[in-house]
Amino acid sequence: MRVKGAHQMGKSSLLARMHQRAKQNSQAALYLDFQRLDQTFLSTLDSLLRYIAARMTKHWRTSRSPDSYWSSSLGAKDKLSDFVLKEVLENANLPILLIFDDVDRVFKYDYRDDFFSLIRAWHNERPFEEQWEKLNLVLAYSTEAFLFIQDLNQSPFNVGISIELGDLSRSQVEEMNRKHNSIARSGELNSLINLLGGHPYLLRMAFYTMATGSISVPEFCRVAGDDDGPFAEHLSRYLRQLEASPDLRHAMQDVLRKHKCQDNEIFYRLRKSGLILGHSPDAVQARCQLYAQYFETRL
Q1: What does the alpha-carbon distance between residue 293 and residue 224 come to, in Å, rounded to a whole number?
Q2: Which of 131, 197, 244, 287 pairs with 177 at a CA distance of 20 to 30 A?
Q3: Tell me: domain 2-164, CATH 1.10.10.410, correct?
């Protein structure tokens, strides 16, 4: 399964629910967040695969350590595959859930094709090897994989079930409003959606703030973009990131003023961050009106 979505689109919440559901069903489950990996573990394919094996050993208390597999003359991909098969799958009575979050961190490394071809190979083994049918793998990412994977026939990003997380629909926002005692009337809900779009994080924060802070919708919309407003930390964090990179700052200025982005790579970086919307660099816009208003006056 592949879960794709920009920053703060709800990927982590979805993965947490998957992990919890597996545990409730007495399935073995392991969640690995690639953002937490030290640089040393990402430096080579061998170090990354050995790290994954080590985490499996610690989590599932395998009978043999990765050392016994890494002492062979096989390549790193075969070593990890043998380890997973012998130490994890053959000892599992129920399906295994393995979640790799933020795997697009691997995209910038030269060994990325080798890593993702290994994931694809595990998927391809399922019809031929009964044990591999026990492995359920979830890849979560936010960057367009086709930009980095050279051989799509060895890519795991075009097989299995795909879930792409997007903005909330009008009906979903209305349901969120009902769960908060219909704090926003119809016209006020329109104002809130015009300001925040369908951004899941911003909308959840908005309803929570209004429900717990006794602040009206019109007042909330008025102060939403203030430096001491309800989104101050969220907006200032983005602003610091943009100011730290002249390329990103100039690209965001072009988005706001020309609705274009001159550089493809920066276009995907801004879209991955959740700051902009658009299917191509020639037709883009700020993710929501709040972002447009905030950054137009500060960049």
Answers
A1: 10
A2: 287
A3: no
The one-letter amino acid code at 141 reads Y
Per DSSP, what are the bridge partners of residue 30? 98
Q: Which helix (H) or strand (E) holds 219?
A: helix 217-223
User: Is residue 100 classed as helix, strand or coil in its secondary structure?
Assistant: strand
**What's the confidence (pLDDT) of residue 146?**
59
Residues of the chain with CATH 3.40.50.300: 2-164
**What is the C-alpha to C-alpha distance for residues 167 and 5, in angstroms, rounded to an integer?**
10
Say if residues 5 and 11 touch (Cβ distance below 8 Å): yes
For residue 85, the 8-state DSSP code is I
Six-digit token string for 119:
């994931």
Q: Where are the beta strands (DSSP E) in 148-202?
A: 162-164
- Contact predicate 96/87, CB 8 Å: no
Helix or strand or coil: residue 96?
A: strand
For residue 139, which amino acid is it?
Answer: L
User: What is the rounded CA–CA span in Å between residue 160 and residue 296?
Assistant: 41
Q: What are the Cα distances from residue 284, in Å, to 94, 271, 279?
A: 46, 9, 7
- The phi and psi torsions of 86 (rounded to 5 degrees) equal -75, -40
Q: What is the pLDDT of residue 192?
A: 96
126-159 pLDDT tens trace: 989 999 999 999 999 887 665 566 666 677 877 8
